[in-house]
Amino acid sequence: MGDYMKNAINYYYELYPTNIYQNNQYYKFTINGIDYGLIQFNYEPQQLQFSYDLSLLLKKYNIYCHQIIKNKQNELATNINNKLYVLLKMGKYNDEKLNINSIMYYPLVTINLHLENLTTIKKWRDLWIEKVDYFEYQISNFKKKFPLINRSSNYYIGLAENGIQLLLDLPNSQHFCVSHHRIKNNYTLFDLYNPLEFVIDSKTRDATEYFKTKFFYDMLQLNEITYYIDNMISTNYEAIMFLSRLLYPSYYFDLCDEIIYNNTDENTLSQILVKCDQYELLLHDVNSYLNRNFKIPEIEWLKQG
Hints:
alpha+beta; six-stranded antiparallel β-sheet; globular
């Protein structure tokens, strides 16, 4: 496969790497000290055009991201062995693991670019209502096949509804920035700077997804969250958006989709379920910290701790 990909890169991009290294994400090679990554692309074509246009906009403002390189046919994607690939020209140190400071990069440098016209994401509340409705439909069809999902579903639907309720009647005063489909705790700078993963959304999106996955799959300290709040949350609106997304159990719904549609072992849910009480305590602490400086609508069980 290495020689096959090397020949494809030679032909389609007129680049001639000596060695190609494959990991679970992409084919990587270096030419004249510059790193490249050939990555499989699984989204709709309009998403690829969006990623390319946004990457050019960031380059215009000297904001770093990986560059999408067109092939010799001037196309963004290349069909290699009946799979679509995109070539990225990358910076160095792409294997460095993310931390909260690196996650704050794009919100800080893109918040004033007036990106609201580029967003294609619905309001969180509408998306979450649709997700809960669809998840309940899934449960009705698969409850016998997935008993662990069936037993735990009501609790996580309740968490989602708490997040939805927080956003009720919230006036829209957000500013949009470059965000990502999903930021996870094991991601690296390769993922952070990958324009194929970009979306335009609230500045709290990436941080909250990072905190949730780090809590359930690694180790998260409260001071990491309070550091973020102190440096990035400045209005009641942002505080409410932040707490609502911490409440919304995207980590649970994502894993359930993997179990139902991609044959992931249902027992992988146990890593989440055993931490639900600890996560409730974390939510209580975050809610208390936010209420020191911001006015958050009351959620009774969070107030009680």
